[in-house]
Automatic annotation (TrEMBL):
It comes from the Bacteria. This is Uncharacterized protein. CDD domains: NAT_SF. PROSITE patterns: GNAT (PS51186). The lineage of its organism: Bacteria, Bacillati, Actinomycetota, Actinomycetes, Propionibacteriales. It comes from Tessaracoccus flavus. It holds the Pfam family Acetyltransf_10. One of its GO terms (molecular function) is acyltransferase activity, transferring groups other than amino-acyl groups. Signal peptide: none annotated.
Length: 149
């Protein structure tokens, strides 16, 4: 499995298009959430874009994607998304593990869709706040903090 890790200026036009298309197809269309997908954080200098390409299996584009944002005292993983044709293969778990390992020195925060809290818990994330609605979908704030022991 090949994992690609790039900063915004390193992305090709085709890579950026594939990233945005996957995020729009899943978050906006499949999950029926009208929200400002282009939030300005993709282009921040320290943001990393990580994905597994879908090449080699007959499906074009990106199999799974996430971004890592600098949040000052730690990082925030978000926009974790897997193409419908690639779900159930463990790809997003491998990509998340890669992102965790690459940021092992830092506190990592996520806002997990509530139904995925157990999945994130399997990576060591712990709920650290109350459930909230984001774009009509229940979420839980979670973190993984190497400083806490």
């Amino acid at each position: 499995m090949r994992i690609i890790d790039k900063a915004f200026p390193e992305l090709t036009v085709h890579e950026l298009y594939a990233i945005l298309r996957l995020r729009m197809d899943v978050f906006v269309v499949e999950q029926a959430c009208a929200y400002p997908e282009l939030d300005g954080r993709d282009a921040e200098p320290e943001t990393r874009h990580l994905w597994v390409p879908a090449d080699g299996d007959g499906l074009p584009g990106i199999a799974t994607y996430l971004r890592v944002l600098n949040d000052g005292d730690g990082v925030r993983i978000g926009r974790v998304v897997t193409s419908p044709g690639h779900r159930g293969r463990g790809l997003s778990g491998a990509l998340l593990r890669h992102a965790i390992d690459a940021n092992a020195h830092a506190r990592i925060d996520i806002d997990a869709q509530s139904h995925l809290a157990r999945w994130y818990g399997g990576f060591g994330f712990q709920v650290n706040g109350e459930e909230f609605l984001e774009d009509g979908i229940p979420h839980l704030p979670m973190h993984l903090d190497p400083r806490s022991g």
